[in-house]
# Entry
Amino acid sequence: MKYCSQCGKPVSQKVPEGDNRLRYVCDECEHIHYQNPRIIAGCLPILEEKVLLCKRAIEPRAGYWTLPAGFLENGETTAMGALRETREEANANVEIIDIYTMFSLPHISQVYLFYRARLIDTDFSAGVESTDVRLFSEHEIPWDQLAFPVITQTLRHFFSDRGSDTFPVRSLDIIVDRNRKPLA
Amino acid sequence: MKYCSQCGKPVSQKVPEGDNRLRYVCDECEHIHYQNPRIIAGCLPILEEKVLLCKRAIEPRAGYWTLPAGFLENGETTAMGALRETREEANANVEIIDIYTMFSLPHISQVYLFYRARLIDTDFSAGVESTDVRLFSEHEIPWDQLAFPVITQTLRHFFSDRGSDTFPVRSLDIIVDRNRKPLA
# Structure
C-alpha cells in the first residue's frame, strides 16, 4: 500500500494514537488503513464412501488436488461462500451438513473453514479453476498430490472420524516459519 | 474507496474479466482491489459457575455488556486474537478450551468466533475499551443490556449446554434486512 484509497495522497507506516501496531496512515487526511486476515470457505463433498476433489487449473499448486474452496466475499455467510465455491469449481450440487475444520495460517493471514457437505447427485464437472473433478474413496486419495496441508488434514480427520460416525469440529493452526533458511 | 492504493490514481467499479462481481479497479494500473469480510475473535471466560463480561466504553453500544472480542490482526491465529482481545479489554488471564460459536453477519461482512476459555485467576480489570469487568452467574446476566445478538446467543447456548457438560461447536448466521423500513 502506497497511496490513500480515500484521498489519493501518499501513506506512511506509523502507530496511531491509542494503538500498538504499525498501520498505513494517510499523510494528508490521516485515514487509518487497517489490514486484516481473509477467510477461505469450502466444502468437503461426500457421496456414500467417497469424497469429491478438484484438480487445480491455476497457481498456486496447479495440477494438485484440492477441496472446492475460495475467498469469502462481502455480503456472504461462510456457508454461502462454501456453497458458491463448490458450484464454481466443481459445478457440484451439495447440501451443507455442518462446519468441520477451521485452520489459522498466520504466516499468510488466512483462516480456512471447511464444511462437511452431502453431494446431492453426480452431475458435477470441472469449473474454470479446475481441470478435473473426481470422486475418491479413501484408498484412492492421491495423498502425495494434495494441494495444501489444510486439505490433507481435513481428509485425514474425516476418514478417521468416519469410523465412529462422530465429526467434532476442529480448530487447528498451521504454523510456518517464513524466515527459515532452506537446506543447503 | 476512491483511489488506487498502489498508484494513487482514481478507481472505478467494474466487473473484471473472468469475474462476476463489481470490484474497485484502477483506471490507470488496472490493479483489482478485493474487499473481504473481517473476523472478530473473542473469548467466553469461565470461572466455576460464572462468566466474565465487559461493559463497553466505546461505540457502538457503549454502556452495554459484551464478551471480550475484536478484529483479528494479520499474523495472528484466531486463538491468539481471542487471547489478545481478552487481555486488552479485561486484563484477564485465560486459557483457551476450544472453539465454541461462529457467527456470520453478512449485512456487515463480519464473522465472529468465540472460544470457551478458562479464567486462570481473578486478577482482571477494565482495559481502555471497557468501563467495568465483572463475573456473572447465570441468574445475574443483564440479558436486556447485552451489546450484540452474538453475545446473547453465545451465553444462551453456554448456559444450556452446561447442563449436559457437552459444548458442540455452533455455526450460526445472523441475518438482518438492512432495507427494512422502520415502524412508523
Notes: Residues 5 and 33 of chain B are 8 Å apart (CA to CA). Residues 149-162 of chain B form the longest helix (14 residues).
